[in-house]
Structure formats: C-alpha cells, structure tokens
C-alpha cells in the first residue's frame, strides 16, 4: 500500500484514509510487545495535521484499539 503522502511529504487524504495500520495490525503489534514484557506503549499518531486531527485520531484509538488490548 502506497503511503498517503505526496512528493513534498505532505498528507494527501483525510484522517480515516491516512491510517497506515489497521486496527488488527496495531492490536497484533501491541500484543507482541506485551509478550516481550513491554508494559507501556503508545500508538503513533498517523498523519494528523492539527489538534483537531490529533483529537480525532485519539478518539479512534480509544474506541477501536483500547478495548482490544486493555
């Protein structure tokens, strides 16, 4: 899958389209880290441009990912 950026390294899609990893991929990676003994981690913000985009991304993480790993 091609990255959602242009030649100037700028995001070119809306927040939902800029997510580089699916929920399942993120959950799997966090699960693997837990298996290795990691007790604290974070989901890197993917392509947010401003505070509203960041808050939207964090809501997505809380709604979609946290229930599956927490």
Terminal residue distance? 29 Å
The fraction of residues in strands falls at under 5%
Percent in helix: 40-55%
Radius of gyration: 13 Å
User: Tell me, what's the shape?
Assistant: globular
E-strand count: 0
Quaternary state of this entry equals single chain
How many distinct helices?
A: 3
Mean pLDDT, all residues: 79
Stretches where pLDDT falls below 50 for ≥5 residues? Answer: none
SS class: mainly alpha
Q: Can you summarize the main beta sheet?
A: none
Q: What is the succession of H and E elements?
A: HHH
Describe, in plain words, how this protein is organized in 3D.
The chain has 70 residues and is mostly helical. It is 51% helix and 0% strand. It has helices spanning 15-18, 23-35, 51-69.
List its traits.
single chain; 70 residues; mainly alpha
In a nutshell, what does this entry contain?
The protein has helices spanning 15-18, 23-35, 51-69. The protein is mainly α. The longest helix is centred in the last third of the chain and has 19 residues, at 51-69.
Mind sketching the topology for me?
Blueprint: H1 15-18, H2 23-35, H3 51-69
């Amino acid at each position: 899958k091609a990255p959602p950026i242009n030649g100037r390294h700028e995001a070119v899609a809306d927040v939902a389209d800029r997510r580089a990893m699916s929920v399942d991929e993120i959950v799997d990676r966090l699960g693997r880290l837990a298996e290795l003994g990691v007790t604290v981690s974070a989901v890197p913000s993917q392509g947010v441009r401003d505070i509203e985009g960041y808050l939207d991304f964090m809501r997505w993480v809380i709604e979609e990912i946290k229930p599956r790993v927490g």
